[in-house]
Here is the input.
Amino acid sequence: MRPQLLNPLFAPITTLKGAGPQIAAAAARLFKRPEKSPARLIDLLLHLPHDIIDRRHQPALNALPKESGRIITIRARTFRHNAPPPHSPAPWRVVVTDDSGHTITLVYFHARGDWLRKQLPEGEERYISGRLEWYGGKPQIVHPDHVLTAEEFAQLPALEPVYPAGAGITSRTIGKLVRQALEHLPELPEWIDSALLEQHQWPGFAEALRRVHMPQDITDLQPASPARQRLAFDEMLASQLALALVRHHVKARHGRALRGSGERQRRILAALPYTLTGAQQRAVDEILSDMARAERMLRLLQGDVGSGKTIVALLAMAAAAEAGAQAALMAPSDLLARQHFATIAPLAEAAGLTAALLTGREKGRQRQQILQQIASGTAHIVIGTHALFQEEVNFANLGLVVVDEQHRFGVHQRLALQQKAHAAADVLVMSATPIPRTLALALYGDMDISRLDEKPPGRQPVKTATLPIARAPEVIARLQQAVARGERAYWVCPVVEDGSALPATSAEERFATLSQALPGQVGLAHGRMKGEARDAVMEDFRAGRISVLVATTVVEVGVDVPQASIIVIENAERFGLAQLHQLRGRVGRGGQPGYCVLLYGEPLSANAAKRLAVMRETDDGFVIAEADLKLRGAGDLLGTQQSGLPRFRTADVADHATLLQAARDFARLSIARDAQLTTPRGTALRHLLYLHERDAALPLLSAG
Ligand code: ADP
Ligand code: MG
Here is the structure.
């Protein structure tokens, strides 16, 4: 139950003056409220301004800032209205002037002239504020934010916050509503440790909100201001606390100690043509010691493409088998499940273990047999897709679940999955895309992390070039030579949304041109093809019956074809860096050097140029991920929809990265001291969880 004290904050905004049904509907859209759910006071309060109009700064027209983009406030007389000719799309222009004798033009598109003449009567003085632009050497303001009389102007705050607005609701309306909402803000018990507050000079929650919504100084809104930091920390703390509760709950329910003899692992290691890297050995040790504990394991194995996660997972699964339990490995697609099976089955066999494959594609009698093997326990290692956790699948004795996730599951799905899988199973999540440390905390704050930060020896970095798409013919000519030498290449195209129900693929066109240049050598695989047809093409490529594979998404090129040495990525500027890095990791695996060509569409923005330069300069997935975070922001980095990344309203993962670690530490400490959240501090923390709607984990407390 939500603490009573918070009720006023969860009242709909229609309880405020000036918020009718239309404004309320616009606000609900702006705040991304679920269908039919009203916008509430708390949504307003957590909707922070992104700019400030500083009315203390009133430059004379002969002393305007030299750069475009600043918000200025001027006091000026209307000199002349320049109406556009009838039916012309040209804007209505109003020239205003001040004592300096200089002028500035106010520009209105689709204006109602009679209304404008009333707003700005000729010869009369008004206060005007808005964004200054220099256009053809002359200053102008397009659609000023305010045109006010002296009396009206006197009532506005000297520093006015500017809010991200939406259709049907302006920044000004939001400001008025927020100021009312602030009056309903109760004094809440403090949930942050006083030492932490003092250390950072953070204000209390209510004071912080007043500071950002009624700024006293320009700096109050900057990400580093104590008020902004306090609010960001709160939000991160709420999210970390929710993760810590999940973690505590999972850990508290008794798992089982899986302690292997080491025998099967030794036989697997003996069958390998290589020895483990130091990082692999460390990860194996960490995983095995987790598994040997009675507490359940919740561990993330994070490693760059090609860092050798598969063998680490296999050794963990072998340890489970030694301890008499089954292990399951869940892959994100049929194809990857098959590929894992192809790698793992022979090694398992060498150790006297049986591996089974179960995807949506095993049918009929064969499927029945596999289900039987799983139910009887004769299958030690079961590899598959989410089909593994359908009701018809009953494990005799499941002890370890490995999830090869590639960012497809959020925290909640993971929790659901392991509950469905087995109440006591250990969980190992493998993540192929390196993500910055800070984001790893946000995404996996409930888990312990093992990192493979060392690549197997003998890898040569992939040589990377960037070229405009106009030079594709040269690339194709080089490709012809390479194919003649027996090399194999991927050609990756983005999926293009053309407005029709199905996305069009530039891959189809590219397939056509490449097929002309290399008759009979090119295959096409994309997301709209049927699984079997796609697999057949992939198989042709793997077996060398074709030399060039044109494909669309990461999954389709997720296969391991060591002979592939070239990858061309078309419209590379449209891909995330992490994705480019993943794709590039597909080549240069077979001991021969790899080449990557990034073809970009022109014109290339400065930011996109920087991002592609990062790809040329480094091969380190973690460095690339950090750069991507800086250049694109957290949401884009992982694709917010797929990432499972929590949506933050007041915190910015890039700006407030350092706070995330502190939030996690404080969250874990709070749960360690007071797992039921019953002390005064714990009660205060409950308030926080409700404020930020991270209370979903609270019922776990009573479930015990
Ligand atoms: P990941 O899943 O992390 O992308 P894989 O497990 O598919 O990487 O391993 C990539 C390749 O490296 C495989 O061909 C694997 O056999 C090889 N490999 C793994 N570990 C080592 C090692 N320690 N020494 C040499 N090669 C290795
Ligand atoms: Mg892998």
Summary: The pocket of magnesium ion (ligand 2) is lined by residues 309-310, 432 (CB under 6 Å). The longest strand covers residues 71-82. Confidence is low (pLDDT under 50) at residues 634-644.
